[in-house]
Amino acid sequence: MRLGIVSGRRRHGKSFLLRALCEEYGGLYITAVREEGRLPALRRFSEAIAAHAGLRPGTLNLPDWREVLTNALDVAARRSATPLVIIDELPYLLQHSPELPGLIQLIYDEHQWHAGVGARIILCGSAMSVMHELLSGTKPLRGRAVIDLRLGAFDFRMSKQFWQIDDPLTALRVHAVLGGAAGYRALAGRPDPNAGFDEWVTRTLLDPGRAVYSPTETEYLLREDPRITQHTLYYDILSAIAQGASTPSKIGAALGRQRNAVTHPLDVLESTGYIHREQDLLRARHPVITLTDPLIRFNQLITLPQVAAVEEGNAEAIWQTSLPTFNSKILGPHFEELARTWTRRYAHTVLPGGLPGPVGTTEIADPAARTKHEVDVIALALGERPQSPRARIALLGEAKATVARRGVSDLQRLERIRDLLSEQGYDTSGVTLALFSLYGFHADVREIAKRRPDVLLVDLETLYGM
């Protein structure tokens, strides 16, 4: 027997892929249902097994989960040379039947001694913390899974292709509010090229009658993990992070609480995939905490502060007044994150040194100017480790989503940061200075880039590989 674990956030396409896999191999696919009791679940699983075996409804009434599992495997073995059983949304079952992993371990161990073609069992779920714990510590299934697939969202390039959006700026904006979750395309539809992005936002994310309406969808996403119980506290924490609070102390202060009071909720949000802690690439200091789900960020910053007016049908007016917030707190940070993603995944095609090492952010002190420089993108050379003294720097980048084009002053700032790093002992001899811009570059800096191989200009077309 072979065991696989598949996890991932909602709307990422797990069930779609697993159903397609079952179709290809004639497997048995059964999904659990939220808030369904133990006995109704046993009856429904029994009916699914009977249907897969070609039996009449009501033929099987299996009394416990061991009988369900053994019958499912037997039926799958008779239907296909590669027996496949998939249990989707397993965490729902574990709420009333916590013995399931132990039973699967028992059946797995028994099957290792049997000759012949082994069955395949795939366990899937959206509650990330629950799925990740299946293989941890002394849990029954630890050491038995050959696959632990954590299905992520599409990146920005794949999202543009999947949504079939020709204009890169529109594709970037859509990605900034919905991310790369494939399931949103069917719910929201593509922006009309003639009407534009603004019209699309007001009739989807700001329409209380739509399934993708941001408060409704945020509540749906937060309820997918059983560890999130005090929803008001978690909402407040997410709002504080969306507003720019990036450390436990700042988040606690924004909520009027002590730092220790938010430590556990932050750990839960990280384990469930709602927040991300990013370490400074050069120095040990408090990590920067950010939201990972663009739709939750949109909800906390745009919809929730004016939800009453939105639900009264004033979406267009609300959106127009929210554009400064969208540009500064959503589009700007998102563009910086895409610049780092581009550096990790695609910059090797243009960097003189090829594939870079770790990519992230940092902060550089400038004693002479009595200031600090925040670096949007920094990449170490391949083989270097974060926070290593005298590490080789492969790239320093500045990413700005403002309407203004980037010019020589932006390049001079990167040169100053490069010189400061050299003074601090880092190897900057092979560094590339990269400017990322939504709206292009002034002619003077374009001329410099033509003459200097260490200067790289990345516009939207370059970002999207067009």
Detailed description of the structure:
The protein is an alpha/beta fold and 466 residues long. Helices cover 46% and strands 15% of the residues. The chain contains 20 helices and twelve strands. The strands form three sheets. It has a five-stranded parallel β-sheet. A five-stranded mixed β-sheet has the order 8-9-10-11-12, with helices on both faces. Helix 7 packs across helix 8 (168-178), helix 8 (168-178) packs across helix 15 (294-303) and helix 11 crosses helix 15. The longest helix has 31 residues, at 315-345. The two termini are 46 Å apart.
Please give a quick description of this structure.
With 466 residues, this protein is an alpha/beta fold. The chain is 46% helix and 15% strand.
Number of helices: 20
Main sheet properties: 5 strands, parallel
What fraction strand? 15-25%
**Which structural class do the helices and strands define?**
alpha/beta
Radius of gyration, taken over Cα atoms and rounded to an integer in Å: 25 Å
Helix share bin = 40-55%
Biggest sheet: strand arrangement: 2-3-4-1-5
Shape: globular
Which stretches of 5+ consecutive residues score pLDDT under 50?
A: none
Average of per-residue pLDDT values: 89
Distance between the termini: 46 Å
Number of strands: 12
